[in-house]
């Protein structure tokens, strides 16, 4: 009986912050002979050549598939290297290891967290490399896992879920601020452990009638950063989602989308926070001068009711 062995491969989960949003690089699979797997979303990855360092594999594959230059690989600096009895050996710790037990051909995939520089471009094996926000990745994994290359789903889900779960800050800029009419809603399920002034840059505050909304723009929005205890974060977000009309990623009835964005504190430090961004078409823009909301601001157009 002939034994068949798994093929060692390496994948790069490349991280970057784009317009204040934590993102990862995804590309569209387009490999010769891949059949139905072509057009799936994937990470840059490839086979490890004989005696090739995993780190050299990552740099080579990322350059070949995306044109990017890898500048950092998680765990590389801590790698042990040694020689004995004619063996040159290295021991490293990847972010995670994935193995397929059926389907395709047998692969043992080591995924590493990476950073890179340059302008991403396609190749003969992939196309349309782009930075995708983690909240969008997690939403797609929940609703359309079939659009991802199966070997990369676990690493993406694990990373996106961990990063999102670690964000205990919520930036509020309207009726949830201290002294505004829905301030009590923010602490009804769990009280924030801190409330401090903060600013959201690169957005414009719009007057929508009885409440405001932010959309990407060139301004600054003043608000407050609420920090919740980790054990209460899930319940607090669910309660805020209810008020903001957020039903999940790309839900057709969403009034607001919950996104991760960078906000600035008074001392100049920046932190990643959840921000509710208006998700409906803005037919009649009404920017709020100065980016500061008060419940008694004069209406710019006839009053609308909150759904």
Automatic annotation (TrEMBL):
It holds the Pfam family NUDIX. SUPFAM superfamilies: Gamma-glutamyl cyclotransferase-like (SSF110857), Nudix (SSF55811). One of its GO terms (molecular function) is hydrolase activity. Keywords: Hydrolase. InterPro entries: AIG2-like_dom (IPR009288), GGCT-like (IPR013024), GGCT-like_sf (IPR036568), NUDIX_hydrolase-like_dom_sf (IPR015797), NUDIX_hydrolase_CS (IPR020084), NUDIX_hydrolase_dom (IPR000086). Residues 5-154 form the Nudix hydrolase domain. This is NUDIX domain-containing protein. It comes from Deinococcus radiophilus.
């Amino acid at each position: 009986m002939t034994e068949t062995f798994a093929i060692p491969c390496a994948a790069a989960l490349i991280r970057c912050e784009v317009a204040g949003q934590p993102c990862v690089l995804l590309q569209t699979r387009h490999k010769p002979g891949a059949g139905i797997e072509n057009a799936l979303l994937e990470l840059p990855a490839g086979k490890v050549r004989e005696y090739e360092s995993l780190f050299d594999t990552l740099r080579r594959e990322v350059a070949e598939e995306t044109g990017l230059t890898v500048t950092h690989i998680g765990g590389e600096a801590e790698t042990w290297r040694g020689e004995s009895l004619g063996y040159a050996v290295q021991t490293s710790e990847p972010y995670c290891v994935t193995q397929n037990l059926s389907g395709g051909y047998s692969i043992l995939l080591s995924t590493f967290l990476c950073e890179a520089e340059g302008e991403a471009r396609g190749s003969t094996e992939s196309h349309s490399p782009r930075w995708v926000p983690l909240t969008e990745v997690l939403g797609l994994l929940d609703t359309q896992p079939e659009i991802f290359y199966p070997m990369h789903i676990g690493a993406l889900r694990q990373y996106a879920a961990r990063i999102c779960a670690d964000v205990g800050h919520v930036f509020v800029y309207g009726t949830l601020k201290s002294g505004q009419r829905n301030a009590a809603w923010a602490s009804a399920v769990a009280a924030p452990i801190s409330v401090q002034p903060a600013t959201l840059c690169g957005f414009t505050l719009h007057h929508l009638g009885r409440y405001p909304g932010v959309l990407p723009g060139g301004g600054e929005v003043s608000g407050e950063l609420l920090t919740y205890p980790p054990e209460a974060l899930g319940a607090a977000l669910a309660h805020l989602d209810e008020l903001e009309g957020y039903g999940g990623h790309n839900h057709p009835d969403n009034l607001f989308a919950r996104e991760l964005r960078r906000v600035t504190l008074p001392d100049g430090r920046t932190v990643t926070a959840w921000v509710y961004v208006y998700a409906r078409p803005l037919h009649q823009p009404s920017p709020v001068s100065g980016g500061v909301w008060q419940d008694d601001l004069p209406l710019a157009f006839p009053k609308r009711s909150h759904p």
